[in-house]
Design brief:
The chain is of the alpha/beta class. It is built from nine helices and 21 strands.
Length: 392
Amino acid sequence: MKREKITIRDFAFGGEAVGNLADGRVAFVRGAIPGETVEIEITAGHKKYVRGKLTEIVSASAERIGSDCPCFADCPGCAYRHVPYGVELAAKNRQLASFLNRNRDEKCEILPPVGAASRNHWRNRLRLHSDGGGKFGYRAMDNTTLLEIGHCPLATKNLNERIARLTLPDGFRGTFALDDCAERGAVCDFDNELPETLTGKLGDFGTFCYRRGGFFQTNEAIASELARRVIEEVKIFAPDFLLELFCGVGVFSILAARALPALRSVGVEFDRHAVRYAVRNAKNFRVAERCAFFAGDAADAPQRYASFGKRLKTLVIVDPPRTGLGRKLTQSLLQSAPGAILYVSCGADTLRRDLDELAPGFVAVHSTLLDMFPGTAHFESLTLLKKRDTAQ
């Protein structure tokens, strides 16, 4: 394969380092650092870009550090363990700013990022794989090879202690999960009498029930800060009616109802099991009379509840998967025209796409990066959009 030297200019979205070949094509390579000159072996070539494997660091950056994980070179989970955390956080914030403001006349204010207190021991849920023989771990870069682990620096201490003494059932092959549950500690799919209901802690806000195998935030500290900031935005906007789409187990609706005693809300979630737990959580937090939850397609909800928007001051909270809102939902939001939208995103690329589609009716006012997944290529963001005829 052809080899070339390139100078790295930044980290790209997704965690790879980026530079340019002599012919001008963009080159992506994992493991390099901005400012370094490196040699790469081109592994995949396209008309405008290539991907390469790092073969030599010709001139190293002063910011390069040794990784504290022996699996870093082969594991796709982490992207930034070879640089200090401040470098990682700044790179992610540049990526968010680029997606939101590149080639746009209207600029969204990028607020200071919210970093993690530690790059390690935050992940309270792991999904591991086994190909048999009692061995287990992550899938390597090729998504096929089993990368055995006895410890993961991202995992909470409870999960790592469980990994150290974990024995798989005879003959097991497949995928399984470990959860660091608020009330039970580290639990595994193989545990006898494992309950259907687990609990996740959200800092000082308390604990929420969720279904075993269902979704709950994996980083308690940053998830708590995200919830706090969402509720602060809700209090500033002071809606009469809140519509939460992709509501999961109802966290934002429930906390908003506690913060605003007159607020009424509706949460919509495709997963009917999550809706069942949202109802249960609302009862536990004593706001059930003001928080309703329904299973359904989020794209249908804005139009269904548009009459509330005409009569009441309405705020919509959206927290979609990495695929984003989708055109059907953005068009529904444009037609129903709520007063404001709080967009919680875990994909800056799809966030930009959705903001472009919402631009005829909404202005992106400000956005904050919250590093929910330190060490990895991923991050969360919270963006406030206001209806154009009310935005200041």
